[in-house]
Design goal:
The protein is α/β, with parallel strands linked by helices. It has 18 helices and 13 strands. Strands 3-2-1-4-5-6-7 form a seven-stranded parallel β-sheet, sandwiched between helices. A six-stranded parallel β-sheet has the order 10-9-8-11-12-13, with helices on both faces. About 5% of the residues have low confidence.
Length: about 400
Amino acid sequence: MAKYYIIAGEASGDLHGSNLMRGLYAEDPGADIRFWGGELMDSVYKEHQDGTGLVRDYKDGAVMGFTQIFLHWRAFAKRFSDCTRDISEWKPDVVILIDYPGFNFRVAEFAHKAGFKVFYYIAPKVWASRERRVRKLKAFVDKLFIVFPFEIPYFEGKGVDFVYKGNPLVDAIDGSPALEETREEYLRRTGLPDRPSIALLAGSRTGEIGSMMPVFMEFADRMHSLPEYSEYQFVVAAAPSRTMSDYSGYVGGREYVHVLFGESYAVMRNSLAAVVNSGTASLECALIGTPQVVAYRGGALNYMIAKSIIKVKYISLGNLILERTCFRELLQDYFTPDNVLDEVRRILSDADYRSRMQEGYAEIRGALGGRGASAAVAKAMIEEMQRR
């Protein structure tokens, strides 16, 4: 029986952590797991173990942007202190870090120096920015588990020891109940009217919601005012970690805007188009097959810093995988209600444009491999522990 200490700091990490835990329990039925994560990881834990494995819910501390991290440094320091103390007291056989580099790199250094084995699952995006972190991966991580095919030549060139077993999002989406229910079941379950829908995904963090929702609402107002789209509704796919108070101030009394929590896959699948904050949601949208436009706006200082250090041509994982534009990205000053409206209208009216996007989606899915990545990674982790 091995002891696994897993740290996930965001909603996507909770999702991938839950699937990884299923794989660990399947390969090691006596696994003892302790973790930082969320409801999904906790649900898997309770299927296999008694007691309390969840140390800290990721919803207690997710922030975004360079300036917010600076402003919340005291809270970060307290979380780090709590985490390292808990690891020291619990003495796991391995510490498994899932993405969340701002926090997890510090944990990796501590755990390595304290003599614990360290695995990193879902590589920090060092190929996009902060390449100096590669040195930390080589110094403090025993094995890196990557999830994108374009990362293979990059990490080979950097001499980083890694394993690639496909992308866990394929498992998460293909196994989702949201893809099995009919539209009638979806409407009945959610209480939404049977009207054409546009999905709006603003992200899960407070800063993202604050920067995205005002533009989303202006876009919805303008599109709704056009006679040919007056029957359309706009469905905000809200993160399960948020509450209605995070959105009500933006939505106001708009009867054509609805907010659903924890229903991202179902909302995407039942929408004619999606406007998506850059991030994991964009790749999920591609795998589900909903035509999309990606949007992003950060604070002026955050954007200036990010622009100076980010080296990649695209911010969307799907476009990065294809190394070309499959769907449009509206960034910073280009993320305006009029630009979003123009792009959504093109998606709805131009069949050839939609068809080319769907062809790109098929290529993205093919590049990520088939199902079973989470279980394969779990098995590879256990084999790696036995080897060492």
